[in-house]
Fold each of these.
Amino acid sequence: MENLELYLRNLQGEGKSKNTLVNYQNDIRDMLSFVNKKEDEITVEDLVLWKANLNKYASSSIYRKISAIKGYFNFLYDINRIVLNPAKNLKNVKVKNKEKPYIPMEEATALISHGKNARDKAIIAMYLSTGLRVSELIRITLEQYLQNDIYIETKGGSFRRIFLNQSCKEYVDKYLETRKNGAENLFVSNQGTPMRPECINRTLKNIAKRAGMTKNITNHSLRYTFVSDICDNYGIRVAQETIGHKSIKTTERYSKVKEEKIKNVMLSIAL
C-alpha cells in the first residue's frame, strides 16, 4: 500500500479533511480488491467493470468513489508509478440533487421534549444551535465545552469557533449531571464510550418516533434546519460563514426559501 500512503499524504498536504482521507482510502482499497491487480497492471476495462458494479450506491457516493480513483491514478501517473493512466477518460456520474428533508425550526425544536433522557435532549439542542455535522459533534470534548472554547475542524482543514446560546448550554449542563465518566468526548454512551454516528442517528429516529413525526429525521436534516433558519433570518452570507462553507454555492443548496413564503411576499404587494 506504499502508493496509497503516498497519495493520502499528498491529499493531507492539500488540506483534505480526515473524513475525506478515510473515505478515499476505503474507496481505493475496495477498487484494488475488486480488480485484484497491482496498480500498473490495471486496465481501462478493469475500471469500466468496477464502475458498473457501483450501481448499488447513491449517485453522490458513486461520484466520490470515481473522483477518488481518478485522483489516485492521476497522482500515480504524475510521479511515474504507472506508464499509462487507465482512469484518464473514466467519466464520472451526475449527482442527483434530491430534495433535502426539511424540518421547520418550530417542529425541530419540539423534538427536544421527546428526548428519552438529558443526553438526547442536549444532542437535539446542540444540532439546532450549531448546525454541526455528526462527525464534528462527536469530536467535541468535555474539556472544550467546560472551557467554552470549542473549535471545529472543517472539511477543508481550517477551524471555526462554535458559540453556544444559553438555552443550549442549559440542556448540556443538565446532561452533564448524569454523564457517564469515561471517554474525553462530550457525548458518550451509557457505557462511557464515545458515541458513534450510527448511534446518534438511531437516537434521532427514536426521538422522532416518540414525537409521532413521519418525516425522516437524520443528523443532516437537523443541520439543514439550522442553515435554512439562518438563511431566512440573517441571509445566506451569514449562513455561509456560520456553517463554514468555502463556497456560497454549497450554502445555496441548504437555503430553503419556501415557495409558500415567496407566494406570500408576492401576493402582499399592493399597487
Note: The longest helix spans residues 59-78.
Amino acid sequence: MPELPEVETTRRGIEPHIVGKAIKSVVVRQPSLRWPVSPELSQVMTGNRVTGISRRAKYLLFSTNTGRMMVHLGMSGSLRITNGSTALKKHDHIDIVFDDGTVLRYHDPRRFGSVFWIPEGSSHELIDSLGPEPLSDEFNGSYLYGLSRHRKLAIKLFIMNSKVVVGVGNIYANEALHAAGIRPDRLAGRVSRDRYATLSQEIKDVLTSAISSGGTTLRDFVREDGTPGYFKQSLLVYGRGNEPCLNCGRGLQEVRIGNRTTVFCTKCQR
C-alpha cells in the first residue's frame, strides 16, 4: 500500500506537469472503486484549470477554479503522466486530459482507491476528523503524551490511528518504534513524556528520510511504462523478521498486532 512518503512523492512528481493547465476532458472508464467515482466529475472538471496539488494524510487534493478532486490510491493505485498516444493498460480507470495533450492517468488493479469531487467551500467527511500531519509543529511529544493517557492499546496501534496522527502506516510505524527503542506492544498509556518526545522526532525523521529518498525517482512519473518507481530504501526492521537486528545482532521477532505484521528487537526495544 502506498504510504505517506509514496503519496507525497507522487504529488511532487506530477505537480510540475499539470499545475496551471486547463482540463480538456475527463474520461472515467471504471467508476466502481472502493466508493463510486463522483458522477459529476467529468462535467464539473472539464474547462477548469488545476491551480495546485496538496496532500492531506494519504489523500491528494487537486485544486481547480470551482472545487477539488480528492484522490486516494488505496492498496494498489498509482498516478502517472502520459499523453493521448500512450496505449491503455488493463486497470487504467480514469484519464484527466489537458489542453496541451498531457494526460494524468489513474491506474488501480485492486480498485481500493477513491476519487471524489469536493465543491468549492465544502469539505469531506473522510478528511474532516483526521489528526495532525506528522511533519507539522502541532505533532510533538507533548501532544502524543497528553492524548495517550489511560489508553490501554498497543503504542503501535495508537500511532497508526489516523485520528491521532495521519500517515504513519505499518512500515514506518515499525521503523520509528525501533529507532525510538520502544516495543510496539507496550501500552500507549504507559509511555513517558520523554519517550514520546523521542518517538515523535523519530517519526518525523523516518518520514522525512523516506520522502527525500523518493525525490530521486521523480522522473519515473513520466516514464512510458508508468511504473511509479516508489523509492527503495534500507529498512531496519520491516520485512526482516527472524533476521539479525542491525544494531545488536539479536534475531528480530515477528508478531501480529492489530492483524498487521510487526517486527521488533527484544533487546533494543523495551
Note: The chain has a mean pLDDT of 91.
